[in-house]
Write a structure and sequence with these properties.
The chain is an alpha+beta fold. 42% of the residues lie in helices and 22% in strands.
Length: 315
């Protein structure tokens, strides 16, 4: 409230045009830019084969894509900004939302996952976090917080559901939503990724949600072979994949987005760059105290969670 939010910090010292842009285009759908990028799969295939042969670890395109996006968001922080109520905020964390089908059938249940990262994670860290979430949510006994919250809202009568959403929108615009609710909302996320290869569909230009504050929506398309010419003029078929991005243009200018997407592409062309975990940045005195306080708070939460899980296992 009053410019404060649980998921972001208001950006100060902006240029006049950047500050004015959200007032000219108050809705996220007004400001969406669509971008298509074709990625050659040979580098990823070689990397996947090498890692499987040498280390016995199998990486998927989805995991590499997610790790590349997370690293980009960390190294290019303006892409991790969002607009709410015509104000620009820097997100306090990096998160990825992704939808998965429990079964690849028309009636198969769809589950939306939301995962949190610091941005310094290695590809192995991203893989472990993703696999843990998928395994937990494919288990019939486990229900993800996102699905649980949506389920509670869907039990309401029509008029009550509409009223609840109006209250949520008002609360979101004025920074009144609690962190717990923001943590389970897939619409309040750094990036939403959709891997459409699994359903044999090409990449699509997805809309940005007006509810929530997702700034980037990325879709991965099915694999196909495209004719590519080298410098000598020789044409060969290259295994390729289309990526399509929907971007909120209000958070940064075209040059910044261009350099950010080039960085993302460099990670996809050389996944080995994602194998190493990035070092923690040096913190000032105030930042260090703030971090220590946050770590203590998180340690208490983890201890309470472990205690609850122990009680459940004993039952």
């Amino acid at each position: 409230m009053f410019g404060r939010r649980a998921d972001g910090v208001k950006v100060k010292g902006m240029q006049i045009i950047d500050k004015a842009m959200p007032y000219f285009m108050p809705m996220r759908i007004d400001a969406v830019n669509l971008y298509e990028q074709i990625v050659g799969c040979d580098a990823m295939d070689k990397f996947i084969l090498k890692e499987k042969k040498n280390n016995g670890v199998h990486y998927s395109y989805t995991e590499i894509m997610m790790a590349a996006c997370i690293r980009m968001l960390y190294q290019r922080p303006k892409t991790n900004r969002f607009i709410t109520n015509c104000q620009v905020f820097q997100r306090k964390y990096i998160s990825v939302s992704i939808s998965i089908k429990k079964k690849l059938t028309d009636d198969g249940e769809e589950v939306t996952l939301k995962m949190f990262f610091t941005g310094r994670e290695s590809l192995d860290d991203v893989k472990r976090i993703f696999e843990k979430e998928v395994e937990k949510n494919l288990n019939a006994d486990e229900v993800h917080g996102t699905t649980k919250t949506a389920g509670l809202l869907c039990k309401l009568p029509n008029w009550c559901f509409k009223l609840a959403m109006s209250i949520l929108r008002f609360g979101d615009n004025h920074g009144m939503l609690p962190r717990k609710l923001l943590d389970v909302s897939p619409f309040h996320t750094s990036i939403y990724v959709a891997d459409l290869r699994s359903i044999k569909l090409d990449a699509v230009n997805h809309h940005l949600y007006n509810f929530g504050n997702t700034t980037i929506f990325a879709t991965m398309g099915k694999i196909y072979y495209a004719p590519v010419a080298n410098r000598e003029g020789e044409v060969k078929a290259q295994k390729s994949m289309k990526l399509k991005f929907s971007l909120d243009e209000r958070v940064c200018d075209g040059l910044y987005y261009s350099n950010s997407l080039k960085l993302l592409n460099s990670f996809l062309e050389n996944p080995q760059l994602l194998k190493e975990r990035l070092p923690e940045p040096e913190l000032s005195g105030k930042e260090l105290k703030r971090k220590q306080k946050a770590d203590k708070k998180q340690a208490k939460k983890d201890a309470k969670k472990a205690k609850k899980e122990n009680k459940k296992s004993k039952k």
